[in-house]
Every structure is written in C-alpha cells, then in structure tokens.
Amino acid sequence: MARPRRVPPEALQPYLIDLPHPRSPRWRELRRTPVKLDWPALFGNDRPVHVEVGFGKGMFLINASRARPDLNFLGIELERKYVLLTAARLAKQPCPNVRLACTDARWLLKECVAPESVAALHIYFPDPWWKQRHQKRKLFTAEFAEQCARVLAPGGVLHFVTDVEAYFDETCAMVVERGLARQSEETPAAEFLTNFERKYRQQGRPIFRARFVKASVGIGRGS
Ligand SMILES: C[S@@+](CC[C@H](N)C(=O)[O-])C[C@H]1O[C@@H](n2cnc3c(N)ncnc32)[C@H](O)[C@@H]1O
User: Fold this and answer.
1) How far away, in angstroms, is 208 Cα from ligand 1 center?
2) Is residue 23 a part of any domain in this protein?
3) 100 lines ligand 1 (CB under 6 A)
4) Domain count within the chain
5) Mutation test of ligand 1: which of 19, 84, 125 has the most ligand atoms closer than 8 Å to its C-beta?
6) Is ligand 1 within 6 A of the CB of residue 163?
C-alpha cells in the first residue's frame, strides 16, 4: 500500500515517534536502551492517554481521536505501511492528540511505558496466529496481560474484541488473573468500529467483546 502522494513526508512527522523496530538491523542493541515515553512531553498536555495496539488501517484511532479532543491517543502498529497510511490520513485533517509508534507493542508497553500511566487500552482483533510455529508472534500472552495490568492507571480500562472464541476465553482468563474485573461491553456506534469489525459484521461472523477495569483507588479519568 503506497502512501498517498499528495501528503508530503514532512506533514507526517508530527505524528510519528522515532522508536526502534524489530526488523531494524540494530534492534538487538537498541531494544536494550529504550526511550521512556513522557506523555506530557509527547502530547504537550497532561490529558488522559488511550493506547491502541495493532491499529491496522487506523479507522478506530482516527475517528476516536477526532471525537475526543479531550484525550490523547497513542497507536502502536508493527507494519510500517499502515503507520504511514494512518499518518497520511491524520495529516489531511490535522489531529494534534494522536501519535503513532511503529514497533512491537509487547516491547513498547514493557520497556517504554510508565506504570499506571494509561487511562485505556484498546486491543481489537489481534492476529490469532493459529500455527504452532507462529505462536511466538501472538500478542496476548500471560506476559502481555501482565504489562496491560501494569500500565493501566487505577480505574483504567482494557477494551478487547476478537472474532476467535478460544482466543477470547483464553485472554479473558489471563486478564482476570491479573486482577482486572471483567464487565460487559456494549457494541459502540458504527463510526468507532475498526476495519476488521466492519468487515466481519458484514460477513455475519460472531464478535466477542469485553472490557476489564483495574481497581480504582480514587476516580479514574477519561477511560
Ligand atoms: C488483524 S489486524 C487488526 C487491525 C485492527 N485492529 C482492526 O481491528 O481493524 C492485527 C494488527 O495488529 C498488528 N500487530 C500484530 N502484532 C503486533 C505487535 N506485536 N505490535 C503491534 N502491532 C501488532 C498487525 O500488524 C495488524 O495490523
């Protein structure tokens, strides 16, 4: 997928965070010296931060960030072509509350995000990686669930949606084991559905969704 030609590269820069990528030749070295993300420095304000992991073509990220200028959004996506596509869409109608990270979210959450600093995590349709030899690419593992629980602020929310029932059951169990409380999740308005959810709904596939809340010591903000 080529970047739309009409958007000059410099217009994408405000959205992109410079981070190492697992396919970069210096990944082994750079992953050991992670940048600690400082939300107020990154966004220029101290509004609550929502993180979307694996945003794909960016439909949810773009629509949610436009609808909620009172929140900041970090999107993390492994595939550069999707990061550039989303940055180009954002640049066409400037959206100052979004930043994009092109890297492995498992590494970023663990190494670059401060504990209890995220108001909400959005994880929609992670690849199921059915084959045994691809299992190491799977996003939701016990370690990842641990990181989700660690980075969420008290009262913070993890939104999780998949079309794969076994993945759903396994993930729900892992997340609840880390102390987050499961609640039922309403289907959002059409504009807040991801590309995959739109496609799967048209195909009549079952969709499994849950929200998990981290126990609140005070009152959670903006999740
Ligand atoms: C099945 S797609 C779903 C895309 C989008 N969430 C949606 O619902 O339309 C999964 C996305 O997660 C990305 N992804 C997979 N593993 C990732 C990882 N470890 N870190 C960041 N992104 C990842 C893939 O590149 C892909 O774009």
Assistant:
1) 17
2) no
3) no
4) 1
5) 125
6) no
Q: Residue 73: which domain range?
A: 48-128+137-213
CA-closest residue to ligand 1 atom 19: 104
Tokens at residue 175, please?
Answer: 């997340």
pLDDT in tens, the chain (223 residues): 555 557 898 999 999 999 999 999 999 999 999 899 999 999 999 999 999 999 999 999 999 999 999 999 999 999 999 999 999 999 998 899 999 999 999 999 999 999 999 999 999 999 987 777 777 889 999 999 999 999 999 999 999 999 999 999 999 999 999 999 999 889 999 999 999 999 999 999 999 999 999 998 754 455 6
Active-site residues, by number, are 127
**Domain CATH number, residue 187:** 3.40.50.150
Q: Is residue 27 part of a domain?
A: no
Query: Which of 74, 88, 80, 58 shows the shortest CA–CA distance to 192?
Result: 58
Task: With respect to residue 19, please indicate whether it lies within any of the assigned structural domains.
Answer: no
Say yes or no: CB of residue 76 within 6 Å of ligand 1.
Answer: yes
pTM over cut 0.85: yes
Atom of ligand 1 nearest to the CA of 106: 19
Q: Which of 182, 115, 107 is nearest to 139 (CA)?
A: 107
List b or e across 90-113, with b for residues whose CB sees 16 or more CB atoms inside 10 angstroms: bbeeebebbbbbbbbbbbbbbbbb
- Could you give the CA distance from residue 144 to residue 160 in angstroms, rounded to a whole number? 13
- Cα 58 to ligand 1 centroid, rounded to whole Å: 10
Residue 8 belongs to a domain: no
